[in-house]
Amino acid sequence: MKCLYEEETDMRYTLENENLKVEIDSFGAEIKSVKRKSDNFEYMWCGDKKYWGRTSPVLFPFVGAPKNKEYRYDGKTYTMGQHGFARDMEFTLETQTEENISFVLTDTAETCEKYPFHFALHIGYELCKNEVKVNWTVENTDTKELYFSIGAHPAFNCPVHGEGNKTGYGLKFGGLADTIHHHGNTPDGTTIDNFVPDGMAVMEDKVLALKDGCVTFTEGFFDECTYMVEGKQTGEVSLLDREGIPYVTVKFDTPLFAVWSPEGKNAPLVCIEPWYGRCDATDFTGTLQQRDYENMLPQGGTFKAAYSIAYL
User: Fold this and answer.
1) Measuring CA to CA, which residue among 130, 91, 76 is closest to residue 11?
2) How far apart are CA 241 and CA 101, in angstroms?
3) How many CB atoms lie within 10 A of CB 257?
4) pLDDT for 241
């Protein structure tokens, strides 16, 4: 799929082997392109702002947004937007080889105004055959406990064979007969059914019926909500073309994940998102420490996690 949209970037870095060529931007330490070298096939969404202006941002120190875009910690109220701030900051290169690269982001005076913690966030990428492994390390460099969420938001081209839309494409959920999900209602001002457009989680169990572990995209499949699948129901999700052939598989060990495409836009992209954290529920009234799936690191502590994407 060729994209005519181009975006000004900061420093681009390349990982390459016999199968794939991967481009990563230092701004957000974000993957911008993954191409199959045999035929120059592009897997990743190009970031056309008409639909969604990003490709694969890291979500840190929040996944989603806190209720009313504010949270309470240590007797104070802080403001925080959707998905935190790491995706909109310049990372520093740590190391690079032909098939490995690592970046780091540390707190600044500006981040401390909205997130009162000292931290170091390391993001590493490893290229092996047809797979990219993404490594996250969070270090607590503060003198108190550190609270955070972290998540991935990779967007893949869909459709990929020149079709006019993604109807007939689908997903395969590894090892599942059916899946129970929660709604993430729309944060962009679109009112859908009885959902309030605030981007919060509606904690009503919904069943997504599967056939042989698969679901096929129908017209409007993504218009109602973000599909949030909690409880470690699976650790593998594949994106399928109209023939039912997988061309991307995301593997993870996160407590929940989401599947999303921009609502009401018939957008030619699909995101499969492993998360350690999520937006607040519609009825949440607690503190930062009480948020669902919030991660805590003691002083000097380190959090390590990883997920991988196989490009088929």
Assistant:
1) 91
2) 31
3) 26
4) 98
Coil vs helix vs strand at 259 = strand
For 58-90, the pLDDT digits (tens) are 999 999 999 999 999 999 999 999 999 999 999
What is the DSSP secondary-structure string of 185-214?
--SSS--BTTB-SS--EEEEEEEEE-BTTE
d(CA 210, CA 227): 14
User: Residue 201's CB: how many other CB atoms inside 10 A?
Assistant: 23
Confirm if 156 and 271 have CB atoms less than 8 A apart: yes
Of 154, 186, 196, 223, which is closest to residue 82 (Cα–Cα)? 186
What predicted TM-score, i.e. pTM, was given to this entire model? 0.93
Q: Look-up: residue for tokens 């802080």?
A: 78
Label the pairing between strands 58-59 and 100-106: unpaired
For 12, phi then psi, to 5°, come to -100, 140
Q: Which two tokens stand for residue 50?
A: 């008409």
How many residues does the structure list for the chain?
A: 312
Cα separation, 9 vs 229, whole angstroms: 33
Taking only the tens place, the pLDDT of each residue in 214-254 is: 999 999 999 978 899 999 999 999 999 999 999 999 999 99
Q: How far apart are CA 37 and CA 35, in angstroms?
A: 6
C-alpha triplet 164, 187, 159: angle, nearest 5°: 15
* Spatial contact of 22 and 42, defined as CB atoms under 8 Å apart: no
Q: Which long-range contacts does 76-80 make (Cβ < 8 Å, 24+ apart)?
A: 76/116, 78/114, 78/115, 78/116, 79/114, 80/114, 80/115
Using the predicted structure, report yes or no on whether residue 196 has a pLDDT greater than 50. Answer: no
- Within 10 angstroms of residue 44's Cβ, the number of other Cβ atoms is 25
By the 10 Å C-beta count (0-12 exposed, 13-18 middle, 19+ buried), 202 is classed as: middle
* C-alpha distances in Å from residue 184, one per residue of 204, 262, 273, 296: 10, 12, 13, 24
